[in-house]
From TrEMBL:
Protein species of origin: Phrynosoma platyrhinos
Name recorded for this polypeptide: iodotyrosine deiodinase
Basic and acidic residues: bias regions: 31-55
Keywords: Flavoprotein, FMN, Membrane, Oxidoreductase, Transmembrane, Transmembrane helix
EC code(s) of this entry: 1.21.1.1
Coiled coil ranges: none
Domain of life according to the entry: Eukaryota
Residue span(s) of domain Nitroreductase: 104-247
Taxonomic path: Eukaryota, Metazoa, Chordata, Craniata, Vertebrata
Length: 269
């Protein structure tokens, strides 16, 4: 769905490195939990699992029957363009954005910074990434994911061919570190690692938009281990997101999506 991408100047490397190296500090902290009733060492994600175990539901919803409840099967695609800034403006906007965001602080937090941002610019490695993703995505589409998933994506006109993995000047692969390694070689717990990295990715998407660059949020399914090995990342890092980054081509189009109205997404109590 995205966009052929024209080539970028090396200055972008500097911008993006600054952006991604210092995106955001701090993690959210959790509420104190009641002590567990069991003394057994239960699980490794207590801060998440308590929520998942919440089966209180005031308005239970029936499982659907698997039928595609389709919005438009073939949603219209419309031309897409973004603001184009001069290189100087991009650098200035990046700096201003960084300065603004660098003032953001959590009042307290675990501050594990459980992320690694891999910037791929090498054409050969980009192509290897493409091969891995297309191979796995073809299986996702044809076998693994089932009809509903394939139908849900149909209207966005995506498939397993990902030309942008070759043509985008940069691929950002963002890994969550599910644990850290202490200087003595022992594991360091990375609380809330997925939430933290997702927040960082959201800010990164905003930072890219702020300088007139475009991307598509992508989560290459079932590709994580192979891409991790290709990029020489350690086993405590799991791929969370892949962002191809560049300028939109002149004939770029996007699906004509609408956003949910505020009343649907905000509840004031
Ligand atoms: C968590 C997440 C994963 C996504 N994964 C993919 C993906 O693998 N491939 C893709 O083409 N789009 C992917 N998308 C992009 C969505 O299709 C897109 O964000 C959505 O349609 C809204 O469009 P917009 O980003 O243009 O507002 C993903 C989006 C999110 C939030």
């Amino acid at each position: 769905m995205i966009i052929a991408l024209s080539s970028l100047t090396p200055i972008f490397v500097a911008i993006i490195c600054v952006l991604i190296g210092i995106i955001v500090k701090g993690n959210r902290t959790s509420n104190k939990k009641e002590p567990r009733k069991t003394s057994k060492k239960v699980d490794s994600h207590p801060w998440v699992d308590d929520d998942l175990k919440d089966n209180t539901d005031l308005h239970p919803v029936e499982e659907d029957d698997g039928e595609w409840q389709g919005l438009d099967d073939d949603i219209a695609h419309i031309p897409f363009s973004t603001e184009r800034y001069s290189k100087e403006d991009m650098v200035k906007r990046s700096r201003d954005f960084y300065e603004l965001l660098n003032k953001r602080r959590s009042v307290s937090g675990a501050h594990t910074e459980p992320w690694t941002f891999v910037v791929v610019q090498d054409a050969e490695i980009k192509h290897k990434i493409r091969e891995i993703i297309e191979e796995e995505e073809e299986i996702n589409y044809k076998k693994r994911m089932g009809d509903r998933w394939v139908n849900d994506l149909k209207r966005l006109r995506t498939n397993w061919i990902k030309e942008y993995l070759d043509t985008a000047p940069y691929l950002l692969l963002i890994f969550k570190q599910v644990y850290g390694i202490l200087p003595d070689g022992k594991k360091k717990t990375h609380y809330y690692n997925e939430i933290s990295v997702s927040i960082a990715c959201g800010i990164l998407l905003t930072a890219l938009q702020n300088v007139g660059l475009v991307t598509v949020t992508s989560t290459p399914l079932n590709c994580g281990p192979r891409l991790r090995v290709l990029l020489g990342r350690p086993a405590n890092e799991k791929l969370l997101m892949l962002l191809p980054v560049g300028y939109p081509s002149k004939d770029a189009t996007v699906p004509d999506l609408t956003r949910k109205p505020l009343d649907d997404i905000m509840v004031v109590v």
